[in-house]
TrEMBL record:
Residues 76-141 form the Potassium channel tetramerisation-type BTB domain. The lineage of its organism: Eukaryota, Metazoa, Spiralia, Gnathifera, Rotifera. Pfam families: BTB_2. InterPro entries: B30.2/SPRY_sf, BACURD1-3, SKP1/BTB/POZ_sf, T1-type_BTB. GO terms for biological process: protein homooligomerization. Transmembrane segments: none annotated. This is Potassium channel tetramerisation-type BTB domain-containing protein.
Length: 344
């Protein structure tokens, strides 16, 4: 009987130990969940505090805006670097997410710096700003087919670097490029990466023609390209050709509607005719890994080439009698493995 009692006590102790262990596990799980709850609560309170702060900031800005009833037709008087000029508010705010659109949105009327005559003071070069303002005036109120077309700037010859710096400062540059793809080829080349790159893959070195997909009839367009591979930095042609020139050919730079620049030599092609020397101050300085911008200005019948390595810009005037619109992007490669990539 004593033995049975002893066994019962041991069994009871084992059961109690098991219950205690299970209880300890439950307590530890509870403590862990409590810690997680406290962390989530702290994070929630932090997020709520940020939300309340942003809401308060928004409501304050809204109240500030209500103090000033602004209109797109308001005349804005400017003092730019000491030179007085004026324009419509709609001209300045038409392109969102730029410095000008934020300054003149109506949210900061009370904080805008003004001169003694009440003109809004902007500390920029007046000559450069006037060029920018004139282009904004041309676009104001226009409805273009491609929304990006209207925010591609015509770079003023001789002031390209300074003007590019100004538009970067004002937040325009990120929207400068015109979407483009390679679409047609003739010769030993192939198109890759969904039309974004073209490579010479022929059996031997030979001229090959490449054209872009987009047709250019009006407006200003900027196409950016990177010369990824150019053997011996010897030959690449970059320019335009009339889409009416339906017959493609190996030496396409000799096509009667071809205009553009050849690499390595100061060589320019005008309606398919080669011009050596210093036409438009072109020096032929295009190299492998260069990034270049081709500006196609249909309104002024001209094209420009900006080399971002040398910061030099070259210009060619297009005779529409020889090269009728619409125009196309036009390249010509020569050596095997030469490659050009579209950044637009």
């Amino acid at each position: 009987m004593a033995s049975n009692l002893s066994e019962s006590i041991v069994l009871l102790q084992n059961q109690m130990n098991s219950v205690r262990d299970q209880f300890q596990i439950v307590v530890e799980q509870f403590e862990a969940e409590k810690l997680q709850f406290d962390a989530d609560k702290s994070s929630f309170l932090k997020d709520k505090k940020c939300f309340d702060r942003e809401r308060s900031k928004y409501e304050n800005e809204l109240q500030q805006m209500k103090k000033f009833q602004v209109s797109d037709n308001d005349i804005i008087y400017l003092n730019v670097g000491g030179e007085k000029m004026c324009t419509l508010r709609s001209t300045l705010i038409q392109i969102p997410s730029t410095v000008l659109s934020m300054i003149f949105s109506g949210r900061w009327e009370e904080k805008i710096l003004k001169d003694k005559d009440g003109y809004v003071f902007l500390d920029y070069d007046p000559q450069l700003f006037k060029l920018l303002l004139n282009q904004l005036r041309e676009w104001n109120g226009k409805q273009l087919v491609n929304e990006k077309d209207k925010i591609v700037f015509d770079m003023p010859v001789g002031l390209e670097v300074q003007f590019a710096k100004l538009i970067r400062q004002l937040g325009f540059e990120q929207e400068q490029l015109t979407p483009e793809k390679f679409s047609k080829i003739f010769g030993g080349v192939k198109i890759e990466q969904d039309g974004k790159s073209v490579i010479h893959d022929g059996n031997g070195s030979s001229h090959s023609e490449i054209r872009g997909a987009k047709l250019y009839s009006y407006g200003i367009h900027r196409v950016q390209l990177k010369i990824e591979k150019m053997r011996n930095n010897y030959w690449i042609f970059i320019g335009i050709i009339s889409s009416s020139q339906t017959q493609m050919q190996l030496d396409s730079f000799h096509s009667p509607t071809a205009y553009g620049w050849a690499a390595s030599k100061p060589c320019v092609y005008l309606n398919g005719q080669r011009h050596d020397g210093s036409y438009g101050s072109y020096d032929g300085n295009l190299c492998e890994q260069d990034t270049v911008d081709l500006l196609i200005n249909c309104d002024k019948n001209q094209i420009q080439l900006l080399n971002r390595r040398t910061l030099k810009t070259y210009e060619i005037l297009i005779d529409p009698n020889f090269c009728p619109k619409p125009w196309q992007l036009h390249l010509n490669l020569y050596y095997i493995d030469d490659k050009v990539y579209l950044l637009s």
